[in-house]
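Fold this sequence, please.
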Amino acid sequence: MSVVADCIKSVKKQTHSEVEHIVIDGCSIDGTLSVLHQQKKNFSAFISEPDKGIYDALNKGITRATGDAIGLLHADDMFANNKVLSLVSKIFEINPEIDVIIGNAVLFDPCNSNIIKRIVRSNRFKPWMLRFGFMPAHTATFIRRSVFKKVGIYRNDYESASDFEFFVRLFWIYRVRCCYINQTLVHMRIGGKSTSGIKSYLKSSSEILHILREHRFYSNKLFVLSRLPIKWINNWMFCLWNSRIRRKF
């Protein structure tokens, strides 16, 4: 089964009764489009056309959404289980004052979904961590549609850090009311523009620092660059802990 088929299947299996699945494709040429056409009867809306990049595609989906809350899945992501949307919906329903719900994300090996590389625990996130370039798991974030009308959508002038810029607006400029839940909501294949090598890391770091300065959120190069060794240490500790657990059992 292809990567995008896994993503579609994880949405289709959700037990929540009201799911609006909007699929945006940028005229893929890798076989993705064929899979999408086969599955389009399962979509609420399907658009395949040239775009200006990933954030432009996200904006197309957001502006077409009609539901009360919006969540984002990239083609190589999957919901952690079939009750994720039911859980998110219930939390929003019983907490009308909450604008954003954020959970954890598991990052696994792109060739083997049984090999966990890292866990992003968003319940540990605090807005001051943005100063160092840290942010919650993007696709484990669910936002009321009304919030986008206030905060705005993603900007297209950043290549790999527009999601970070959006979170700065969300948590620093507008200080939305957020609920952090210590549960895994999304499984993600490790990789992406901002995490695919030193060159992309330096590029994203430059964008992050520019964003923080633009929004007058104090930071510096040392703060932002320190996030990579911190991630390395956390990954090393996770791998060590994981190997001990395996030996135990």
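Confidence is low (pLDDT under 50) at residues 243-249. The beta strands are 22-25, 45-48, 69-71, 77-79, 100-109, 112-120, 141-144, 178-189.
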